[in-house]
Design a protein that fits this description.
209 residues, alpha/beta, TIM Barrel, 9-stranded parallel sheet, 8 helices, 9 strands, 44% helix, 16% strand, globular
Length: 209
């Protein structure tokens, strides 16, 4: 592997809209660059086959533990489908106790989306592995700092939504553990080389914190 490897899964590549022909050049490139967490939202064209192929790629390309799974997971049935495809992480836009509990029961990481203290504590009480603060750009670093103050110190908080490498320092100082990178990293139909260039820039920016 070349470059900086994100073995702590602090940076999550969110590949909304990716298609099967893009999986090897884009996801393979991301793994080569050092990403170890890949999220393919279920409202992508062929999410489950893409997740299955991404999981195979991860095993083929690295011995590091990788998080490969789905975003926009709304139902317990979705959780089962992602697990069957080989996924090991479930990311949701909301804090649905049934989805969180099903994910944890299946031995998968659960990262539900929250915005308020009430949602955050509901998610944690349901067994969430960490929290996705969404949309982070609306809450901002000050909002995350305030929310972080009433959460358990061990809770991993990811800033997601409108956040890119230039924002890392401010959100990290506010208590964010990691970041979900969507359009700042990948847009549907993006050239794989451009995605990999953005991936290297994100990894380097995070390593400098």
């Amino acid at each position: 592997m070349t470059g900086i490897v994100d073995t702590d899964h602090a940076l999550v590549a969110i590949l909304r809209g990716i298609t099967m022909p893009e999986v090897r050049p884009v996801i393979g490139g991301l793994i080569e660059a050092g990403f170890r967490a890949i999220e393919i939202p279920l409202n992508s064209p062929d999410p489950l086959p893409c997740i299955a192929e991404a999981a195979r790629l991860a095993k083929e390309m690295t011995d590091d533990a990788c998080l490969i799974g789905a975003g926009t997971v709304l139902t317990v049935e979705d959780v089962a489908a992602v697990q069957s495809a080989g996924g090991n992480v479930i990311v949701s836009p909301n804090a649905n106790p049934a989805v969180i509990e099903a994910s944890v029961s299946a031995g998968m990481m659960s990262l539900p989306g929250v915005f308020t203290a009430t949602e955050a504590h509901l998610a944690l009480a349901s067994g969430a592995s960490g929290l996705k603060i969404f949309p982070a750009s609306v809450l901002g670093p000050d909002g995350i700092k305030a929310l972080r103050a009433i959460l358990p110190s061990a809770c991993k908080v990811y800033a997601v939504g409108g956040v890119g490498p230039t924002d890392f320092a401010a959100y990290k100082a506010a208590g964010a553990y990691g970041f979900g990178l969507g359009s700042s990293l990948y847009k549907p139909g993006a050239d794989a080389d451009d995605v990999i260039t953005a991936a290297h820039a994100a990894l380097e920016a995070f390593a400098e914190l």
